[in-house]
């Protein structure tokens, strides 16, 4: 009775979630504007990628490998999920900021989650069928529950991987922002104006963070906005508060004529001290984890040495 009630509740919950997923909601004005903006960015990204990609080779079409076919299928699935997310008005602010900092699309991420969940969901029935065919007696209700658990785990693992990679790239970006502030201060000390100092500081290297800053400054020139507005928009897009604060300081200097060179040098020194403190904290955590691992190894070794004596005493008693 309890199993039937639980199964019915799970089936009802699944039907409700499917209806909520596929029914078209009534969007508001803000959601419509966000969809238009996201569609414009997506179309611009597709246009750039199509312009940079080489044209199709007719001779290689007949001998395409299965890996190429799978990549093409994943690309079509990603495009379909991107359109579905825009139509349903899925916000996913944290996920979008993580994807922006790792330079991936929402459709590709959703396609990875769907495929990983489906693959892990199908592993259990295939293994169960193979074992039953081999003559191993297995119950019938366990594979469904285990398949659901593994499917949910497969759909959740890409989120964990994305979160860890995004945090690592944000730490790298913060280090680059500190160096960028020092470069801007030196260029200002050399007599350059603020826009020229920003552009010159962003062109000293081809590291990915400086490339993102350089692209933001180039887009500001194309769209007719100020460089600090573009940097602030980039900081909000990838969720790097230090870049947003730097954009605010640059805007204050441009509007009120504040002494920006001293302020930028002080901000760079503060960021270096913060980064040093974070590095020391991470080193301390790793040292503690190593200490715990050593204690566990010593405890296991002592237990291994004491087991024969304890077993002999128990047998003699």
TrEMBL record:
User: Any idea which UniProt keywords this protein has?
Assistant: Cell membrane, Membrane, Transmembrane, Transmembrane helix
| Cellular localization per UniProt | Cell membrane
Q: How does it sit in the membrane?
A: Multi-pass membrane protein
The source's superkingdom equals Bacteria
Q: Which InterPro entries match?
A: T2SS_GspF_dom
The family database entries (Pfam families) matched by this protein are listed as: T2SSF (PF00482)
Q: Please report the stretch or stretches of sequence annotated as the Type II secretion system protein GspF domain.
A: 180-307
* Membrane-crossing segments per the record: 6-23, 106-131, 143-162, 295-315
Its protein name is Type II secretion system F family protein
